[in-house]
UniProtKB/TrEMBL annotation:
Origin organism lineage: Bacteria, Bacillati, Actinomycetota, Actinomycetes, Kitasatosporales
Name of protein: Beta-phosphoglucomutase
Protein species of origin: Streptomyces telluris
Domain of life: Bacteria
Entry similarity comment: Belongs to the HAD-like hydrolase superfamily. CbbY/CbbZ/Gph/YieH family.
Top EC class for this record: isomerase
Catalytic function, reaction form: beta-D-glucose 1-phosphate = beta-D-glucose 6-phosphate
């Protein structure tokens, strides 16, 4: 499987969405910042410490289910809020309410800005399909289907395990491996026969915890060493680097 940069034993590819297939990670980071900054300003006044759209995003929310990201970041600031209910309105200061607020912001930003797929990733997925590999998208986003459709790549994947499916099946999110394991199960392969493609540290940990056959780290923000230390077998800046033996790994 050298033409795809994979071991010969791999039979399926499990792709994260944001940051791997689509350029939506920056949109999500901006939405998290807008939501958290408004919350912190109202709570602490104008002297509040803002949410860092790079460091705080990478460390506390990237790749996680929405509510887990809210809890994780708030805990880093020593803040505890009531859990609330999934149908809490966005103005309610609960974990679920803040998550709803963030989702409303990101949907508006996607509507305004549109969704762009990484061309190298699209070429790679086409090559994987041509090689007869099974393909799934594994994302914590509840908006995964809409993003895939907006990017024009929904038809490239046989299985979608996203935030909606995870909630229905009560699957814990990344860094637990359960959503990736569910995708492999639906594709009819063992974890050892599946490759995981992720740009988030939580996704790297999920790939390692699930004993998958190969874990590809996609470094869009200059965190190659962190991706390796969290479980990546190889790190590339774009999936197109894996196409053919000439691809250079970082």
């Amino acid at each position: 499987m050298t033409s795809l940069g994979l071991p010969e034993s791999i039979r399926a590819c499990l792709f994260d969405l944001d940051g791997v297939l689509t350029r939506t990670a920056t949109v999500h980071a901006a939405a998290w910042k807008e939501m958290f900054d408004a919350f912190l300003r109202a709570r602490d006044g104008e002297g509040f410490r803002p949410f860092d759209a790079v460091e705080d995003y990478d460390r506390y929310v990237d790749g996680m289910p929405r509510a887990d990201g809210v809890r994780s970041f708030l805990a880093s600031r020593g803040i505890r809020l009531p859990e609330g209910d999934p149908d809490d309105p966005p103005e309610r200061d609960t974990v679920q309410g803040l998550g709803t607020r963030k989702n409303a912001i990101v949907l508006e930003k996607i509507k305004e800005m549109g969704v762009e797929a990484f061309e190298g990733s699209v070429r790679y997925v086409h090559a994987a399909r041509a090689a007869g590999l099974r393909r799934a998208v594994v994302s914590s986003s509840a908006n995964c289907h809409d993003v895939l459709v907006a990017a024009g790549i929904a038809d490239l994947f046989e299985v979608r395990i996203d935030g909606v499916v995870a909630a229905e099946r009560k699957l814990p999110g990344k860094p637990r491996p359960d959503t990736f394991l569910e995708a492999a199960r639906e594709l009819g392969v063992s974890p050892a026969q599946a490759a995981v493609y992720e740009d988030a540290l939580a996704g790297m940990e999920a790939g390692r915890a699930g004993d998958f056959g190969y874990v590809v780290g996609v470094d869009r923000v200059g965190q190659a060493e962190a991706l390796r230390s969290h479980g990546a077998d190889v790190v590339v800046q774009d999936l197109e680097q894996l196409l053919g033996e000439a691809g250079e790994h970082t």
